[in-house]
Specification:
Helix content is about 20%, strand content about 35%. By secondary structure, the chain is α/β, with parallel strands linked by helices. It has a four-stranded mixed sheet with strand order 1-4-3-2, with helices on one face. Strands 5-8-7-6 form a four-stranded mixed sheet, covered by helices on one side.
């Protein structure tokens, strides 16, 4: 069994994919647009060029993403994605990249469980925890 996250960007998926490519080195391994759907009745009006489904590899993990129903701003609450990185320099670089246009919730610093831990909400509203082991 495996648990994978599926994020719905409500019309901003292409923008999010470009951001995560730049900020995290994310790689899109699969992408299907609504216009490519074998079920055209399921296409939200005006969403033909929006992302119906994509797989995104970040490090050794895969996220699934979509534009969902394209109903406006995404609403991500009640969870965080955690990046466990090898060193403090990488943590700082990724934290700064994710914070661009977002909001720092807890600056990077030493904690009792990590020599370098911080929390940030990115420009799409996704909360991230960045830490080193």
């Amino acid at each position: 069994m495996q648990v994978e996250s599926y994020l719905f960007f409500e019309g901003r998926c292409d923008e999010a994919l470009a951001f995560y490519r730049e900020a995290l080195g994310a790689e899109v391994t699969f992408l299907m647009r609504y216009r490519e759907s074998p079920e055209p009745k399921d296409i939200p009006p005006g969403a033909e060029d929006k992302v119906m489904h994509a797989n995104v590899r970040i490090g050794e993990s895969t996220l699934m993403v979509s534009d969902g129903l394209c109903q406006g701003d995404p609403n991500f609450q009640g969870f965080s994605l955690c990046l466990d990185v090898a060193d403090e320099a990488t943590a700082q670089r990724l934290f700064s990249a994710l914070a661009a246009g977002g909001e720092v919730q807890m600056p990077l610093g030493k904690t009792f469980w990590s020599p370098c831990f911080g929390m940030v909400r990115d420009r799409f509203g996704i909360s991230w925890m960045i830490m080193t082991a």
